Amino acid sequence: MTNKKKRVTILTEVELRNTISRLTSEIIEKVKNLDKLLLVGIPTRGIDLVHVLEKELFSKTGVKIKKGIIDPTFYRDDQNRVGTRIIQATDIPTPIEKQEIILIDDVIYTGRTIRAAMDALYSWGRPRRVMLLVMIDRGHRELPIHPDFCGKKVPTSRNESISLRINSVDNEEGVFLEQI
């Protein structure tokens, strides 16, 4: 007998596109000088989300937003529990001093990935401000970290996972919940 995972659609492709449009509008409202904005993606899906947001911001404003990658793997305090994966090269294209940075991840859960990403980021300097954007906030926080920009709050149990799927990478688009 096969054990088939149950998959539930949280955001359809159209809903995901609408959410991205709303999030970029919120960024435009909150960040007064887009020339000083740096979008920084956290591997793996945060990097893909940065590209989508950067394109949407450009289409709305005509401003080319700087983007980068920060891999928090070596800054984690829970490597024993989560294990390691192939490290993504950190790429910060500009000095971060005086920059407004939006850290971007697909899902926030315990907050430990974001804490590690902030530690990694501050090893590069001291930005003017750091904000957090996530597509999904699933609760269960272990640290007092909350997103400034959130696509959707989705209460989950610990035996569920959420995945962001993007056409350019996955050949499908949406946000999905699965039983682990």
SSE topology string: EHEHEHEHEEEHE
Distance between the termini: 17 Å
Strand content: 25-35%
What is the CA-atom radius of gyration, in angstroms?
16 Å
Structural class: alpha/beta
Placed side by side, the strands forming the largest sheet appear as: 3-2-4-5-6
Helix percent reads 25-40%
User: Are there runs of 5+ residues with pLDDT below 50, and where?
Assistant: none
Major sheet details: 5 strands, parallel
Provide a count of the helices.
5
Described by the principal axes of the CA atoms, the overall outline is: globular
Q: Would you tell me the overall average pLDDT?
A: 92
Total strands: the figure is 8
Number of domains: 1
CATH structural fold name:
Rossmann fold
Describe the model.
This protein has 180 residues and is α/β, with parallel strands linked by helices. It has a single domain, classed as Rossmann fold (3-Layer(aba) Sandwich), CATH 3.40.50. Helix content is 30%, strand content 27%. The chain has five helices and eight strands. The protein has helices at 13-30, 45-61, 79-82, 112-122, 167-170, and strands at residues 7-11, 37-41, 66-69, 100-108, 129-137, 149-153, 160-165, 174-179. The protein has a five-stranded parallel β-sheet with strand order 3-2-4-5-6, with helices on both faces. A three-stranded antiparallel β-sheet has the order 1-8-7. Helix 2 (45-61) links the parallel strand 2 and strand 3. Helix 1 crosses helix 2 (45-61). The longest helix is centred in the first third of the chain and has 18 residues, at 13-30. The two termini are 17 Å apart. The model has no long low-confidence stretch (mean pLDDT 92).
